[in-house]
Amino acid sequence: MERKRRKLAAQYDAERAANGGGVAQVSSIFDGVTIYVNGYTTPSAMTLRRYMLQHGGRYEFQLHRSSVTHIIATTLPDAKIKFGPASDVIVHPQWIVDSIAAGKQLAVERYLLFANAYKSMAGQQSLAESLGLATAAGESLAIAPELDRRTTAGDALTRRAAGAAGAADVEQAHPDLDGLGMRRSKDEPIDPGLARLTTLGGGDFVQKFYSNSRLHFISTSRMASQEFLRKALAERYSTSQPLAREAGARQVIFHVDMDCFFASVALRDRPHLANAPVVVAHALNGSVESKSDIACASYAARARGISNGMFMGAARRKVPDLVVVPYEFDKYAAVSKALYRVFVAFSDKVQAVSVDEAYLDMTGLGQPAELASEMRAQIHELSGCTASIGAGPNMLLARIATSLAKPDGFRFLSHEHATFEIDALPLRKLPGVGYKTVRKLAKAGITSCAECRAQPRARLQALLGGSVGAKLYDTVRGLDSGTVTLPGPRKSIGTEISWGVRFTDATGAEQFVRELAGEVGRRAVEAAMVGATLTLKIKQRHPDAPAEASKFLGHGKVNSFSRSTTLAPPSSDAVALADAALTLYRGLGFEATTVRGVGIALTRLSEVESERRPALQPAAIDSQTTLSAEWHPPAVTGVGGRGAEGTVELPTFSQLDPSVIAELPAETRRELEIVYRRRLAERKRDAGRGTLTQMARPTLPSRPASAAKTKPAPMVIVLDGASGSDDDDFVSPPPQTRGSSDEGSGRDDGVDPEFLAALPSQLRREVEADLKRTSPRKSGRCDGGRKRQRGGAPSLSQIFHPSQAEGGRAARRRHLLSG
DNA sequence: ATCCTCCCCTAC
DNA sequence: TAAGGTAGGGGAGGAT
Ligand SMILES: Nc1ccn([C@H]2C[C@H](O)[C@@H](COP(=O)(O)OP(=O)(O)OP(=O)(O)O)O2)c(=O)n1
Ligand SMILES: [Mg+2]
Ligand SMILES: [Mg+2]
């Protein structure tokens, strides 16, 4: 350790010496080059400076447009990616290193940090048309090189789409680029020193991340608070009589929220900082460049323009004497606990909002001002921190009252004063009105609460959607019909990490997926729940984004993708979840080096009493005799930790005997139908995007989350069991989508999601619209082609609703079709 | 109509 | 340098 420090110090000294003292020039590689180094780089700015001086170049400490010829950076501020002047030559420092190694100045093209791919096309009319993208997939592939040619730095993702057109074309378009070289040089620069902080760093990344993530902390605290309330209130209901409330009293709601929560805790234990501009963040010595998030700013800091969520650098620029204090999660948890104890002491109707905040129904419990005063005193007593309380006739006004009361205050906001106070607020301050909503409203010329109130409800709904529009219509009038209630059972259990996520190979990425699946499984077990749907979310570096984000080890600009699948039986088992998640992950077909975030969630949850039983009770089916004889043995992966004994693997749809189904009790039949419908939907979906589960995958999935919807399946999948056992794996597409030669090329017309992702959103929309128009669902093709091989299999509806479809047929088929 | 998947948005 | 999570409401668009 000590040795390491000495070594670093020595290195620093050497650099300084090189910097201060004269540096001998040993070559003229960089004749005429003047660099300016932006942000953190590897090698360091000082090292780069020395390189320049040694090799005939010049180094500027400031960005003088007149003299600087190259800006050197490993990351770009997001703003620059979006708005950066096309004239800027921003180059990765590797250019300098490689040039020196090569003994000559290499062309910068492949080291450019970003590609202003479509700038030059801004004026063109039908973009899709001009690119020849409009028709079939084959043609869209053919134009890819053309697309590339317009790309300043040639993006690997676009090129990937071009792959099918032949690498030679790419080479011709870019004689100085070597196929995927750009992609690689983009995604590789993480150096060993940094790597240890990422998913590449070793076993405890996830654990370490969670223990340092404030967002993880406040999210999980919220669930913990709810759990605490559930228990405390339930206990209270069962052991004592309900709180005595004055009959007929008008409803009074409290909204209680700690003042600058994290900072309050910090100041409580650091009284000397009471009046200093304090923020809570990781970057204790963050410079004006720092992109560390500020979780919480003290009121002294807020008075100087600092707010929660701001980047450290931005704050430091405003307030150079900012005092940064570290996170103290244990303390926050303790204070939160004390706070919630006060809550349940004052009311038996409490709704948790967050670690530092809740609603209380105080109807008929006394004078609001007195209650609030007492409650605030208790909170302060027990926690050493101050809270503010807003009160009102409904939750909305209580909440708005809180913001008026802060800090360390109380305020009752009646209907009478509601619109007056509301009109004094910027739209953004209204609950439910976030960044996007403000923008949509502004675009429609609505910029204030008063203007909002002047709009017909229908207009707001047209602008914002039926629900949000109607909600806002009420909000600006101070109306809210919500009641203080604990939320019902959880609807999802998920985890996601989008910081420090870097992989060099598929194995590492898959291992990480496994790890997160384990995490979700653990939480599910803890919650005594199993999930029937697993969703995988992937963030992939945006094709235009540089390898490294502006925020240190952040995800940067990304496209997101989500894919879900059914777990049968519903599960919380780490292995089962991991298998499902990995299948989905592989189905996306992403280059591991481009992945910047991974998330896994379980939904369609149900509770398990003993943690031993799946949601679908085997007994319900078993009792129906005949089916069980035909079942496949339980699949190993589906069973989960609960042991094979209690679980059931459903037979393939095609194996069902309609007549047997018909004899099942209505409820069981409904349950089965839901399961099979779901499977069917998944097959279609997967087939549509050309996802292949286990085999080689010549084609690729669909659009990114941020893109417009893409078309669905070109195929109608028929579950007729023609291929026997491999359709046991309901996650995989049916056999006829695969490797079959029925469509010449052997690939279906799924469009590469990365390709679509590479397009600007407007162009992408056009492309997708055109794809839709010109290659209408070819459902007819497959329909006509391969289905019904053996005299026609019954449809799902026919199976489950024989009366509707063809009642007679069910009776005629007295056996399972295969298996 | 209603369900489903994938996505967006919001809040702390 | 830095720890950009998590859950719920809701909508679009396709399938049934
Ligand atoms: N972008 C954000 C917002 C909040 N928090 C954390 C830190 C806050 O202290 C805590 C509570 O959030 P609040 O919205 O209640 O804000 P504060 O309590 O900090 O201030 P206020 O007095 O406005 O409630 O959540 C965070 O980490 N990042
Ligand atoms: Mg607060
Ligand atoms: Mg709060």
UniProtKB/TrEMBL annotation:
Transmembrane segments: none annotated. Its cofactor is Mg(2+). Gene3D superfamilies: 3.30.70.270, 3.40.1170.60, 5' to 3' exonuclease, C-terminal subdomain, 6.10.250.1490, BRCT domain, DNA polymerase, Y-family, little finger domain. Residues 25-113 form the BRCT domain. One of its GO terms (biological process) is error-prone translesion synthesis. Residues 686-819 are annotated as: Disordered. Residues 253-434 form the UmuC domain. It comes from the Eukaryota. Mg(2+) binds at D257, D356, E357. Binds 2 magnesium ions. It is found in: Nucleus. Its main location: nucleus. InterPro entries: BRCT_dom, BRCT_dom_sf, DNA/RNA_pol_sf, DNA_pol_Y-fam_lit_finger_sf, DNA_pol_Y-fam_little_finger, HUWE1/Rev1_UBM, IMS_HHH_1, REV1. Residues 740-750, 763-773 have a biased composition (Basic and acidic residues). One of its GO terms (cellular component) is nucleus. Keywords: DNA damage, DNA repair, DNA synthesis, DNA-binding, Magnesium, Metal-binding, Nucleotidyltransferase, Nucleus, Transferase. GO terms for molecular function: damaged DNA binding; deoxycytidyl transferase activity; DNA-directed DNA polymerase activity; metal ion binding. This is DNA repair protein REV1. It comes from Thecamonas trahens ATCC 50062.
